[in-house]
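Worked problem 6 (solution included).
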Amino acid sequence: MFSKIFLNKKSIINNVLEIERICGGKVCVMVKANAYGHGMKEVLTMLSDTVDYFGVSNQWEGEAARKYTNKTIIVFGACEDYQRAMQNDLSFALFSFYDAKRILKIAERHKLQAKMHLCLNTGMNRYGIKDETEMKKIIKLLSKKGVQLEGIYTHFSSLTTDKEYTQHQKEKFDRFLALLPKDWQTIKHVGGGRSIFENLKADVFRVGLEVYGYGNDFVKPVLSVESEIVDLQKVSAGEHVGYLCGFTAEHDMTVATIPLGYGDGLPRKLSNKLKVSIGNKTAESCGNICMDAFMIDVTDISCRVGDRVKIFDNASLVAPQIESTEYEVLTNLSKFRGERIIR
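Solution. The predicted structure is:
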């Protein structure tokens, strides 16, 4: 394949180990959205000997992840088929007393184990219970059935922007935790961006972006995107390049075509902005990025068909160009149609 994503195994393992050292607990690596575009299969292959917990958004992602690891996989969104989730040895979020009754019935009927993680709504107002009375009802029901919660967790909504609201969430989380039976071996975990740096008391910290190398100086980007030149065109002054006449040559120039486009997750907003590397030279894109390709100006660069081109190796440098975040740059690569290579 012409286009490749390269993944640095040493960097991702070092990122995880450094995060664990700082937070003082284990890390649950989020591998949802195809591991933030890095490739779920590849990330699980690199980390399964280092990490005990992985997080996904839905049970279908969970089933896909189960093919590549025997470690705990937690589904943080709603499950559509709890029987199937249990049969695939998936742990999953519990959002209400109603759900607890329904899940336990399914588990009893099919003689399956329900590995439930109670979601506490301490202020995110997305999922979970926010009433201590409801938690007491859930605990009473589980105790009656001889079942323990495998985990209990919350999600902080504004760690970097609102310390007062974060403190409110912390205090509410602690009040919920105080209701847990003392003999339960329930894992306590938290997430929400920079939660690992907020001096929180937890067993496990859910981490996404920083595992992949962004958000702090002590982590290194894991992913780089490369392709190659597949065609060279001579363009005369006044001619246009690409769809909708998105670029007009001001002088005679040479344009190289790279077989990677928005169908692979390269944002179209990078049209006429993206800078790539050919050896130690920098070339700028020209014309609107196509679904399957984009063009670069190589007028002053000595190159030929087959030369390798580094598209980017740091999403932090690309994000401002599309007025977005590293999250969007990386998860766009879930659509990548090239090869992912661990090195």
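Discussion: DSSP finds ten helices and 19 strands in the chain.
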